[in-house]
Design brief:
It comes from Flavobacterium microcysteis. Pfam families: DUF4421 (PF14391). This is DUF4421 domain-containing protein. InterPro entries: DUF4421. By secondary structure, the chain is mainly β. It has one domain (2-347). The chain is built from five helices and 15 strands. The chain has helices spanning 2-15, 21-24, 26-30, 187-191, 336-347, and strands at residues 55-57, 62-78, 84-87, 94-101, 112-113, 126-135, 139-154, 160-179, 195-197, 201-216, 228-245, 250-264, 276-290, 294-308, 317-332. The strands form two sheets. Strands 2, 3, 4, 5, 6, 7, 8, 10, 11, 12, 13, 14 and 15 form a 13-stranded antiparallel sheet that branches. A two-stranded antiparallel ribbon has the order 1-9. A hairpin with a 3-residue loop joins strand 6 and strand 7 (139-154). The longest helix is centred in the first third of the chain and has 14 residues, at 2-15.
Length: 348
């Protein structure tokens, strides 16, 4: 739990100075129509004994990756016993590139938004969305740094009901878990595809997370006669993950964790005001196809927390954050393809 607090405090420090609404979304505004994201994540390899009859690392030392992804942050407010109001962002998909080298995961990604795919009838969303989903051998962790402004609502038929350009939602969070059956079950095989699950296996999970969220509007959002809602919470969770090896090429994976958080309106008032209890839910789904030299896969993660939760049917507010991703991975024998080109030029 300690490393979760360290990550959370670090990211709060980075973004706490961005209190001006115009500065909050300067990143996405100035970079349109191109969004540049350069993130390097270096994870030390945890040397743990693995069951080679269940998990097989790929022999290739170098791989190239490309992906199509949609990040999201949406909100659902309960307005009656069976009535809900959902606020959704109008986000176009992004494309990205990356690579991995040896036993150290190094991700360098460049994303470009397909603004021409944005539905103009659903209004305009300005967003800064940084998500890190790291899958280690024994531990996994997720980081959420999200700032959204501009949402819409639609009916069950997909017709736009209303636009909410004044609605702003911010969320900062860190979530981590320990994988008990790490010798036979591989999260990496399901979501990174940099190793292969040979036999179906599952594992129990335990961990927790810490989150801060802030919801504000001029008139679109009303909670307990106010147009804003602040929330700080942390807690524990547990669940189970399973990776089904369909055949030598295809696999499907799913994991679900449920938890309980405690919190209050603000970090500095925690313990001084009434402590609230919030349920959490974090499902993940993966489907993929592997060959020795390349892989293709689909993944979906959706972290659900409540910024307000009580017996009052008009007081529940939930946030959904995560992404959809379709990826293609090409594995190579290190930099041999560059050496071949160099030798050809030398011979010429």
């Amino acid at each position: 739990m300690f490393f979760l607090l360290i990550y959370f405090i670090t990211f709060i420090k980075i973004f706490s100075t961005m209190n001006n609404p115009d500065r909050q979304f300067a990143f996405s505004t100035t970079m349109k129509p191109y969004i540049f994201l350069f993130s390097i994540l270096m994870t030390s390899c945890v040397w743990a004994q693995r069951d080679s009859t269940y998990i097989k690392p790929y022999e290739h030392k170098f791989s190239l990756r490309t992906y199509l992804a949609i990040n999201f942050l949406s909100m659902e407010q309960q307005t009656g016993t069976e009535e809900y109001k959902k606020f959704m962002p109008n986000n176009p998909p992004n494309i990205g590139l990356g690579f991995s080298l040896n036993n150290t995961i190094v991700n360098v990604s460049y994303g470009q938004g397909f603004n021409f795919m944005r539905d103009k009838e659903k209004g305009k969303t300005k967003a800064l969305d940084l998500q890190i989903h790291n899958y280690g051998k024994k531990f996994i962790f997720d980081v959420f740094i999200q700032r959204y402004r501009g949402f819409y609502a639609e009916d069950e038929s997909g017709n736009v009901l209303a636009l909410y350009p004044d609605l702003k939602i911010q969320q900062y969070g860190v979530f981590g878990q320990y994988v008990f059956n790490n010798k036979k079950f591989s999260y990496r095989a399901a979501f990174n595809q940099n190793e292969k699950q040979l036999k179906s296996a599952g594992s129990f999970l335990i961990g927790g997370g810490v989150y801060f969220s802030k919801i504000e509007s001029d008139s679109s959002f009303v909670h307990e006669k106010r147009n804003s809602l602040h929330n700080f919470q942390f807690g524990v969770s547990g669940g189970y993950a399973y990776l089904w090896v369909i055949n030598k090429r295809w696999f499907a994976g799913i994991s679900t964790t449920v938890g309980v958080n405690i919190g209050s309106e603000k970090f500095n008032t925690f313990g001084k005001e009434r402590i609230e209890v919030y349920p959490t839910l974090f499902p993940r789904v993966a489907l993929g196809y592997n060959t020795e030299n390349w892989s293709a896969g689909f993944s979906y993660v959706n972290n659900t927390i409540f910024s307000a939760f009580s017996d009052n049917d008009n007081a529940n507010v939930s946030l959904f954050s995560g992404n959809f991703k379709i990826s293609y991975i090409r594995r190579l024998d290190s930099f041999d393809f560059l050496k071949k080109k160099k030798n050809q030029r030398t011979q010429d």
